[in-house]
């Protein structure tokens, strides 16, 4: 009995299992067919009336590996039903435009240049003393007193210009030992921030880093921990120039002493030999003043460019900067520099280098900050809210992006408020930003860009639109949302067309085309290019004018330098003035034949010059340049 019951139960269980499997397969097939109907409602002949803009649809994917059934992605929102019986679907509620690739700044490496003005100011003060000593040895009774005085006036003028230049660079009053204005740190040092991208605390921290490098016993010029480098090459050149001035000043001092001694022994300045000796010393002082002025003027130019955050040769030589960047690269992990340090990229480096400047006591310190980036490259997107139409009239769903810009990699993402700096076409450098690792829960925009099947983080808003909304993305591309069906017109090279529109569109208008939506006209403009037109000037035959023919009267030449050839009226008046002077000449001064000959020469020149002016007037108009002046003097 037990054996029979067990056998019956086993048979019943197997029968139930097979029925359940058949039922499961049937339900699975029904479900699969139901999903397929959502995407196959549109046949080749006509569009189903039940499928409308705003419906939820599924998209069939490619066969998965090892799977016989196809996977359906979705749901997606139907945005357009095109006239050619094809539907256009995309992830709902956000439109993203990929701008290119981006790198995000993590920190920076600083290059420091310190210019100590104390030696050059001391040398200038010493030269002023020597100039006064020389001036005091010149007596008003000297034979060459006037010549000496004229030379000393130029010397004192240059001296005053140097004093004013020092006052502009270093905040002093009267002399270099008294501070006019500034902030003092706890150690009593005067610190003045020059550029607006640096604060007082930042200047003090940089000064401490520089001090550690300068006091390092190993004489290292780079500190990998503090990420700072002292640019010795530029500083050494500056110090050498000051050393040359110091050497020349010592030689000059000995020569002035010799002149003083000779003057005491004999009246040296009363003879030619003394005159040349004194003038040699004056010229030497002038040349040294000019050297000092040139150094300080270049330094002031460097300070001015640093205030504009613009790299200039007065701050650092580009080749030296590139060499220093290559040296720094050896201290870094791979791919930490924004771009490769090669000569072709030096101009790109100049676009994102931060230039800072501050003054400590009598030291002018320039800081060049080179940004270091995170490892890896991000895709850079500009996000725009895209209203999606619903079945209700003038009602749309829209998802507002968290922020307008998004940097996205395979493992991280970062939202940004401001557009990153474009350092080259389709390559961007972004300021330091908070990055987040990609995990199970992702923001809506990241899910949409990655075409995720799970878009639960998207929470669209329902909005009412009563008029077309047009948003420019970039030049030539607009986002257009039309809440009610209307007709737009296009015009491309005189080919006009009327297009019915309703819903959301990405509109791209080619150059030389126009699109009109109600009263709004959208048009792309080709950038204007400067073009030069070649103008063939006529050859002027000057053989008709005999330059060697002598005239029995003095007639002033007509200077064409002061005549604008674009204004032919001025030329005509000038030539008629010459002609009138000829006619006023009396018969006893000029024979009739001579008068006729000279009048003929003027008339011939008027004719030839008119032929010359006509194309020149066209050339001046075409180039919109300054008046064209022709240098021709004729007698």
TrEMBL record:
InterPro entries: Envelope_fusion-like. This is Envelope fusion protein.
